[in-house]
Specification:
8 helices
Length: 218
Amino acid sequence: MAVSAVSIAAFALPPYLTGNPADATLPLDPDVALHYLSLVAHAVPGGLALILGPLQFLTPLRNRRPRLHRITGRVYMISVVAGSIMAFFAATFSVNGLPAQISFYLLAVAWLYSLYMAYVHIRRGDVQMHRVWMIRNYALTLAAVSLRVFLLIGMALMPSFPSLEFGDVYTSSAWAAIMINIVVAEYFVVHRVLNQMTRRRRRPESTASAAPAAAPLA
């Protein structure tokens, strides 16, 4: 996960750090001067969130360096907020059509909401539910990685399917990146984290119920 995140960040960020719209990897709207700027303002914090995200899941870092975990968490949170807000503008200016725009709007909303829920739970001291929502949030952050993987696969298939256009591939990749990442994250959350939480909560109950039965034998 970390390797793919850093690799995509290293690949996708440089074209938006030159300050030259001609270097942009996405088609720009020639009638909107701020289109390139909105992509830069989205790509930079989004790339930073991609890089910092894997660090938040390292147990040794959380246990041995809790202060560093909190600092990187705050930077990650600010990056997601900035990236999601600018994603609204970038999606509005997009020339890839309404279906692709809707996918990015939904992604930005889900990105913000899952971050908010993670923040609410950690403020309440509920570490496990904070972890659950952070898994969901970073799965949405990793949509930037999945999008490019699906896009490469779709472009490789284009010569075999003459009717397949780049716009179709891009829109399908955008939706697939969101939906597949969400499904994978929910499977991991439900079958790992939430099941562990349920087992931990049942242990005290089973111990308490076993105590009266043991008393007569004693």
